[in-house]
Design a protein that fits this description.
- With 596 residues, this protein is an alpha+beta fold.
- The protein folds into three domains: 50 residues; 146 residues, Alpha-Beta Complex (Penicillin-binding protein 2a (Domain 2)), CATH 3.90.1310; 341 residues, DD-peptidase/beta-lactamase superfamily (Beta-lactamase, 3-Layer(aba) Sandwich).
- The protein contains 19 helices and 22 strands.
- Strands 1, 2, 3, 4, 9, 17 and 18 form a seven-stranded mixed beta sheet that branches.
- Strand 10 and strand 11 form a beta hairpin.
- Helix 12 packs across helix 15.
- One of its GO terms (molecular function) is penicillin binding.
């Protein structure tokens, strides 16, 4: 009996122990499940709150914030005061509004009249326009009937105060150019692609489209049947990156003064077009760039001729004529083939293997001359003599070194290059007709930028600086890229450039270009009047140019002035006086002390 009791007691104890073990196992499993669920929840919360923080922040803030996160702001472009470093916006984004009417809320004729009257007062509607708007907003069931586009915020605020039925407003950014026509071809404009997207055209807006535009973001998310975002479903969110800002080298004051002086002169001379460039020869920075006629980028689609978009300083090559003569002389001086005092007798005509003899303007004969006299009097026959002393292939080599026949790399949209291809036609060493005419700027072409850059090398001791117009690129992440002035190459020696500079001073002091003088300073320069080539040969129309720099002993600027088809005979009466006026302003603007 006692054994049976003990056995039963042991069985009971074992059973109780087994139940305790099972209960403990169940508790452990439950705890593990709770821990696992907790870990999963923590991981999901980390994924949502950290890894997808931007998505949910934007989503919670509403559609406007989400729009801003997906669509980048276009970068701004600035012009400067090169003396103080002060900056001024040249291209920025501005918010404007589309005004629409939810016609379902315009319930009575009186409501419609009130809306129309308010719009008419704000936008100066005539009776016909008022009737048109009334017919569109009354008696229809359209939730969105746009009535005005690109409206300023001040007008919108005044309309909001009237609490008119159905009147709504949609804000959207547009490109705005606060300076209007100032540097229009240089800045370009923002137009539309075929699908309605914004895209930069011409100038800075076109060349730097990718940097200015930035990059858009994207959003991919799963939605429920009710249209809401499923919180735990997979999704992708990449925020937009705003475009970069750009600071130009252009000086706002010089740009305005120079271009306005050109505008007045162009009208006075009845010229077809005009171009002006001011370059710092020691750095290559462009301080002014004028192309006329111009346009207002804010209303770029209102022009009569789309060719006005082209920047003639970089887009339009032309036969430069006599302003090219210093390039030929530079090579001959540098090769010690001539000196400023080398003797030359001008008979008024020279045979250079052309179909007819080469002569001087107006068939003049200058007889006993020096190389300085050749430049002073702009003697074509004398330049043929100079290139004969230099030789054809060395002449070509110097032109290539001066940058003719290739782009300067200014990093503006629509830069083209002139051509010196005629010099490569004849492979022989002898100076042929093409070489002879090229020596005084005929039969070859160059852009104004190429010419002012080449003169910059003469002004800068023979060192050609790479021209540039973008001083800084300021990225949205705070990184700044600054342009460092760069020597492209040594074209001629300092001695040769000094000799040529002195000869060009004589052109103004004693030669035909006295009107280009700036009192108190030694100014170097050269005129050029060149007939315009056409399909049937040269026409009676001419291009007038003047290129110069000053002060000659320590140049602060190089400037080119050009007019197309002015109603005056020679550049000495058109381009030269504009050069003198703008040059005198530059000396005063930079406080350059007189040196003579």
């Amino acid at each position: 009996m006692s054994r049976k009791i003990v056995r039963n007691r042991n069985t009971a104890v074992a059973s109780h122990y087994s139940e305790e073990v099972a209960e403990t196992a169940r508790l452990k499993i439950a705890a593990l499940c709770i821990v696992a669920v907790t870990v999963l929840l923590v991981m999901r919360l980390f994924f949502i709150m950290v890894l997808q923080h931007g998505f949910y922040t934007a989503l919670a803030a509403g559609s406007h914030t989400l729009y801003e996160q997906l669509f980048p702001d276009r970068g701004s472009v600035y012009i400067q005061d090169s003396r103080t470093g002060e900056e001024f916006p040249l291209a920025i984004n501005k918010d404007v509004f589309t005004i629409f009417v939810d016609t379902r809320q315009v319930e009575t004729e009186e409501d419609a009249n009130n809306v129309v009257d308010a719009l008419a007062a704000a936008f100066s509607y005539d009776d016909e326009k008022k009737l048109d708007v009334f017919s569109r907003i009354y008696g229809t069931q359209d939730p969105y009937e746009p009535v005005e586009q690109d409206v300023e915020e001040s007008i919108v605020d005044s309309l909001k105060e009237k609490t008119l039925p159905g009147l709504g407003f949609v804000r959207h950014p547009v490109r705005y150019y606060p300076e209007g026509t100032l540097a229009a071809q240089t800045i370009g404009f923002v137009g539309k692609t075929d699908d309605g997207s914004d895209i930069g055209r011409y100038g800075i807006e076109g060349y730097w489209q990718e940097e200015l535009a930035g990059s858009g973001g994207f959003l991919e998310a799963s939605k429920s049947l009710g249209g809401g975002v499923i919180a735990f479903a997979s999704k992708s969110f990449k925020p937009a990156h705003d475009g970069s800002d750009i600071l130009l080298t252009l000086d706002r004051t010089l740009q305005y003064k120079a271009c306005e002086r050109m505008r007045v002169a162009m009208e006075e001379y009845e010229a077809t077009s005009g171009a002006l460039l001011i370059l710092d020869p020691k750095t290559g920075a462009i301080r002014a760039m004028c192309s006329l006629p111009d346009f207002d980028p804010n209303t770029y689609n209102h022009v009569d001729d789309v060719r006005v978009y082209n920047n003639t300083t970089i887009f339009t090559p032309y036969e430069p004529g006599s302003i090219f003569k210093p390039m030929t002389m530079a090579g001959a001086l540098n090769e010690n083939k001539v000196t400023p005092d080398t003797y030359f007798y001008d008979s008024g005509s020279v045979d250079a293997n052309c179909t007819k003899p080469i002569k001087n303007a107006n068939d003049k004969k200058y007889e006993d001359q020096t190389m300085t006299g050749i430049l002073e009097n702009s003697i074509n026959t004398g330049m043929v003599f100079v290139v004969q002393q230099l030789g054809k292939h060395p002449f070509i080599s110097y032109l290539e070194s001066f940058g003719f026949g290739v782009k300067t790399g200014i990093r503006l949209d629509s830069e083209t290059t002139g051509t010196i291809d005629s010099l490569y036609v004849n492979k022989k060493d002898d100076v042929d007709c093409y070489t002879a005419t090229a020596s005084f700027g005929q039969g070859i072409t160059a852009t104004p930028l190429q010419m002012v850059s080449a003169f910059g090398a003469i002004a800068n001791g023979g060192k050609m600086m790479k021209p540039y117009i973008v001083q800084e690129i300021r990225h949205a992440d705070g990184k700044i890229e600054r342009t460092i002035p760069q020597v492209s190459r040594d074209v001629v020696s300092r001695e040769s450039s000094t000799l040529l500079s002195a000869m060009l001073v004589r052109v103004i002091d004693s030669g035909q270009a006295g009107i280009a003088a700036i009192p108190g300073y030694y100014i170097a320069g050269k005129t050029g009047t060149a007939q315009i080539a056409g399909a049937g040969g040269y026409s009676i129309d001419t291009n007038h140019s003047f290129v110069g720099f000053g002060p000659a002993d320590d140049p602060k600027f190089v400037m080119l002035v050009k007019f197309e088809k002015p109603r005056r005979a020679y550049s000495v009466s058109t381009a030269a006086p504009v050069f003198a006026d703008v040059g005198a302003f530059i000396m005063d603007y930079y406080h350059v002390p007189p040196s003579r």
